[in-house]
Amino acid sequence: MNHKKVALVFGGTRGIGASIAARLASEGYRVAITWVSRPDRAQALMTTIEQQGGQAFALEADSADAKAIQAAVDKTLQQYGRLDVAVVNAGVLRLGTIEDYSLEDLDATLAVNVRGVFLAIQAAVKQMADGGRVITIGSNTAVRTGHAGSSVYAMSKAAVASMVQNLALDLAPRRITINNIQPGPIATDMTAGIAEQIVGSIPLQRMGQPDEIASLAAWLAGASSGYMTGASLTIDGGFVL
Length: 241
Description:
InterPro entries: KR_dom, NAD(P)-bd_dom_sf, Sc_DH/Rdtase_CS, SDR_fam. Belongs to the short-chain dehydrogenases/reductases (SDR) family. The protein has about 240 residues and is α/β, with parallel strands linked by helices. The protein has a single domain (about 5-235), classed as Rossmann fold (3-Layer(aba) Sandwich). It is about 45% helix and about 15% strand. Helix 4 (about 105-125) packs parallel to helix 5 (about 150-170). It is globular, with a radius of gyration of 17 Å. The N and C termini lie far apart (about 50 Å). The mean pLDDT is about 95.
């Protein structure tokens, strides 16, 4: 039996999620990643991980679909036989002011960013070894004022922070820790077109890098973080607006 630890990264094919998956693989985890719209990126990431000596496989799973979330956990167990770390990175960003925000966008945001996060955690911890790790990827908008049109997104991320704080109590008897990373502006393809507008609001005068978020996630996944649970860790260069 292969005793190497296993990590499942929901939303692991680009940006922060891909960096986390690659980092965990480099530290010896066997990694499963979910994708919803870019199988080519999932395949490219798997190839990179395998070329570097790691193990990875990808599976399609829409985080708005409860059955798909459960299937992702089940397939990870079938593939690797265990689950030690769950990283819930999947999310959607739909912006708009309250005058124009549609019910469709509201429902879609809550379905993935809140309901999907809860369901992913629920499905994962039922199969997770005692002493496991759950890591959610929230946003600094949960604690910082963003900009007009971001209220629903910010609300969803604040809900995740509160969820994590309280789920820590549910999971503590099994020594499963759960923590929430709240990134600020990160240099990914999603922010490429607006980076110059954002940098002025960051005291460190630069965008964060996906690898910096991955480093924090890797620490939270490891043994050294065993006394931290229920925390939301904001990593945003001191972002102000």
